[in-house]
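REVIEWER CHECKLIST
Item 1: Sequence provided? yes
Item 2: Single chain? yes
Item 3: Sequence as submitted:
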Amino acid sequence: MSDLDFSVVICVYTEDRWEDILAAVSSVRAQSYPALETLLVVDHNPALLDRLTKEYKEVDDVSVLANAGPRGLSAGRNTGIAASRGEVVAFLDDDAVAEREWLRRFAEGYADPRVMAVGGRTMPIWASGRRPAWFPEEFDWVVGCTYKGLPPGRVRVRNVLGGNASFRRTAFDAAGGFATGIGRDGDKRPLGCEETELCIRLTRARPDAVLLIDDRAVIHHRVPAAREHFGYFRSRSYAEGLSKALVARSVGADKGLESERRYATRVLPTGVARGLRDAALARPGGAGRAGAIVAGVLTAAGGYVVGSLRARRGGATFSVVEIDGRPEGGSHG
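Item 4: Structure as written out by the authors:
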């Protein structure tokens, strides 16, 4: 296993997730493979910044920083990267907790020097206590989790998923940071795909780069009650289509939609057939899951068409930020 220092970046934006933030930090500090530091990046919320600074002022391995860029997750991550001191930068969602072996599994992946990124598996914690009967596992990406159809084990992938991922610090030197204007900003439509765009850009800058997902690097991610409803499912699917259009415009449809074609032609038809079979066997939610897959595909396709038209007219843009040189270290709370 590689002997690398890890900086863990957790981007936060609301005091509504206070207990979740504390739990996320605690899960990092309890790792069997200790992190060099945890960087909490606060997204334009002075009250939360002040509260977290006071909370961790006596904790040497936790630093609290203000997002130095525009509002949004991408700029927050870039702020964390610029402040990081580790050879690998890992990202954890603010409403998730990592299993004890999370960083150790990442570190094992970097034993091969060609590996530039390692992602993990994200499991949902449903607010209601159980998966809604109609919600297909093939669409767990809607709630920020690993979806049915990804291959098991440690496998090579086109892109890692941002809420549970790590990159060598040199990856950002080669490719720049996360693009702003493409991902989430906390208040607007729930866009995504910024990590997809970054990973494609990285493999273009470093054609020899290997990107992996290891399903033993597990985190558990809260799914709030509002995201268990079909309205959110539909909104997030549409936003995914918008985001994919931006990515395809940037990197080309061949690479930008490579994984999505396999997903749409192999994984989703199997999911529809499984749902219809369950319905025929009178199992709960079968017809709903089949219907949700069809609705999700059509909604995402609609978002992609709208996003493509906007991008063509120049009405939707994003920018890539170069990461500043490695600092002496972030300021501790």
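Item 5: Key structural point noted by reviewer: The longest strand covers residues 210-223.
Item 6: Recommendation: ____
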